[in-house]
Design brief:
The chain is of the alpha+beta class. The protein has 3 domains: 192 residues, Beta-Lactamase, CATH 3.30.450; 95 residues, 2-Layer Sandwich (Beta-Lactamase); 70 residues, no CATH class. It contains 12 helices and 10 strands. The strands form 2 sheets. It has a 5-stranded antiparallel sheet with strand order 2-1-5-4-3, with helices on both faces. β4 and β5 form a beta hairpin. α3 runs antiparallel to α7 and α11 crosses α12. The longest helix is centred in the middle third of the chain and has 39 residues. The relative contact order is 0.07.
Length: 390
């Protein structure tokens, strides 16, 4: 106990010496630094997160102390008052000494007091009666503790002030408990912000894909879907979340059962029900697993089959380049062949094209393909002459 008292005496002594150095006088009554209304508005905006997070905890503390003659002050990192809560009588008395929002309570402005000394010491401090440097504050007992961010930097203080007869070490304990709660909530807020920021980046990346992607919960509800998924399924953006996946993929349960075995399903030709009817898609499915290995959902990606065909054509060379406009010649025979070829282009029947080598059989075949309704699909040229008789 004696050691603790000596430490307190040293803290007060050092604070008094700093107060003299700053030019604070014993008969001073008001803080020497006070913000204008415009400066106050800027300060409150800069500290809006601290004010918002601390508010409920300070209200809770006041509900506990209401009627006991205390006021609760929140300051910024420089000791400027951000908010005051408390019983009317001590609030009015404090206002008479200019302890108002926008007033600086650091040692440079008003000498030794719990808020200013807590900032200087970076430690919880209780200052009572004549331990205050200025005589006007000898009526008070003040208990304050600094508030830190997740990097350990001071961002403010919480202070509990009452009459000097109310001095009690438990008062400082209440302040420290409130500060601890505020710091924990600030950390939660920071983590929540980081999570939201990460989710926003992921969402932007997913929306930039030309691939449709959806996540599905274990009970078969779509939890998220990118813009391409909405486009291919013909829904407005944001309308897929919460919908049952089996409304889009009737065989969803078979799909879920399939990924329990190999774990991944790739390039499955699947009928998916869009808002305008069933269409064919190439589908991939990846399980979402918990640390214990249990599957709690899946990520489904899919694309139109015609896009798959185009991709295959692009990288394999299986595409038709020629059209009927590429045919050179004006003879009646060529015109007759061309018109007939156009007529049968959309026929589901097999078409046999014969002719000597070099007469343009493949040109006719490609032209027919590009003239048909299957022009966006793959075209495979097979040289039958190169196939051995065996």
């Amino acid at each position: 106990m004696a050691r603790k008292n000596r430490k307190q005496e040293e803290i007060i002594h050092d604070s008094h010496e700093r107060s003299k150095k700053y030019g604070v006088t014993r008969d001073q009554q008001y803080p020497s630094l006070l913000l204008s209304e415009q400066e106050k508005a800027v300060l409150l905006d800069e500290n809006r997160d601290l004010i918002r997070v601390a508010g409920p905890f300070l209200d809770m503390l006041y509900n506990f102390l209401e009627g006991s003659g205390f006021i609760i002050l929140l300051t910024d990192k420089n000791g400027c008052i951000l908010s005051i809560t408390g019983d009317p009588e001590p609030v009015t008395a404090a206002a008479g000494l200019n302890m108002v929002v926008g007033a600086y309570m650091n040692e440079m402005s008003i000498g030794t007091n719990a808020m200013g000394t807590a900032l200087s010491e970076n430690s919880p401090v209780q200052v009572s009666a004549s331990e205050h440097f200025i005589t006007a504050y000898h009526r008070w007992t003040c208990s304050a503790a600094p508030v830190h961010d997740d990097a350990g930097n001071i961002i403010g203080t919480v202070n509990l002030t009452g009459g000097r007869e109310l001095v009690h070490p438990h008062t400082l304990g209440l302040v420290v408990a409130a500060v601890t709660a505020i710091e924990n909530q600030l950390k939660n807020l920071k983590n929540e912000y980081r999570l939201k920021e990460s989710a926003r980046y992921i969402s932007q990346v997913m929306d930039s894909l030309s691939l449709a992607v959806m996540s599905v919960s274990e009970d078969g509800l779509i939890t998220s879907a990118n813009k391409m998924a909405h486009k291919l399924l013909k829904y407005q953006n944001g309308m897929l979340s919460g919908k049952a996946i089996d409304g889009c993929i009737p065989d969803y349960k078979k799909l879920l059962q399939a990924i329990h075995e190999p774990g991944i399903m790739l390039d499955e030709d699947t009928q998916i029900i869009t808002s305008s009817g069933p269409e064919s898609f190439s589908l991939n499915a990846y399980p979402i697993t918990r640390p214990d290995g249990k599957i709690e959902g899946m990520v489904i990606s899919f694309r139109e089959m015609k896009r798959v065909y185009k991709t295959v054509n692009k990288y394999t060379g299986m595409h038709a380049r020629y059209t009927f406009e590429d045919l050179i010649g004006e003879s009646d025979e060529l015109r007759r062949v061309t018109e007939y070829a156009k007529t049968v282009s959309d026929s589901p029947s097999t078409v046999l094209i014969t002719g000597e080598s070099g007469t343009g059989k493949e040109v006719i075949a490609q032209s027919m393909h590009n003239h048909s309704a299957r022009a966006s699909n793959g075209f495979v040229a097979l040289n039958c002459g190169a196939i051995p008789a065996t």
